[in-house]
Amino acid sequence: MNKFSDMEYIRPDMNVLGSYMQNLLEDFEEAETTVEQIKIIDKMNEARGHIETMMTLSSVRHSIDTMDKFYDEENKFFDENSPKFQDLEHKFYFALNNSKFKKELKGHYGDHLFNLIEVKLKTFDPAVMEDLKEENLLVSEYVKLTSSAQIEYKGEKYNLSQMTPFLESKNRAERKEAYEIYMNFFKENEGKFDEIYDKLVKIRDKIAKKLGFKNFIQLAYYRLERTDYNADDVKNFREQVLKDLVPLATGLREKQRKRLELSELKYYDEKINFKTGKCYPKRNIRMDNG
Fold first, then answer.
1. Does the pLDDT of residue 74 top 50, yes or no?
2. d(Cα 240, Cα 229) in Å, to the nearest integer?
3. How far apart are CA 12 and CA 21, in angstroms?
4. What is the pLDDT of residue 290?
5. In angstroms, rounded to a whole number, what is the distance separating the alpha carbons of residues 62 and 73?
6. DSSP string, 79-133
7. pLDDT for 123-180, tens place per residue?
8. Calpha distance 141→196 (Å, rounded)
């Protein structure tokens, strides 16, 4: 298997792929047998897989280093063009859902695929394409902001994830100090985070209402492909957590406090379960006893 770093990234030509996928959709609707439609679905999934792979490669590499100019441009490309891909997928789902061989396709792929399709069809309409672009840009702005952290600590500079060893230190004073410095980044950028959040709430509410929802809540469940439970079920689950799990968790925290020999458990103690500190995996350990 190739290493992630060796995987080749090539910006997909959305015009070429768009035309190809549109032709496949036309062939799908004109197909005379289930077998023909399945072959076309395979081709469509191959094209979709290529786009999604390139999109994921770009996204991950951009998140690793948001200052990389190449992948910053690629990220902007997908922010602008991923709604076009969603439009093609929406047409694909519509065609599948309205296939004259739907019963046979269900027999081949299973009912759950069509449950997912039913949900997916509710999450998109060409009328929200520009709004989706705006949402993408705001998400990218958030990623850039969090990735921009350069926290000065003990004479060195660290990003947010690099602060983790200090946040989980066996030394309580160091944990407390590290957490305060870590959280100071969010305090200093509170205005920027609030602005992004405010804009995201508004654009997502706008998208939801254009799609016929009362607010973003139900749309969010559909985006997450929740086909077998809804917000009411989650509300019931939260109530059960409060009733049954919170007391249990409180008891576990008390045991943790006693193990750590603390008079009071603070937020910066929560990740430490034993005075010896956290367990970390050792590298190059052979698992075959050889």
1. yes
2. 16
3. 13
4. 38
5. 9
6. HHHHHHHHHHHHHHHHHHHT-TTHHHHHHHH-HHHHHHHHHHTTS--GGGHHHHH
7. 999 999 999 999 999 999 999 999 999 999 999 999 999 999 999 999 999 999 999 9
8. 8
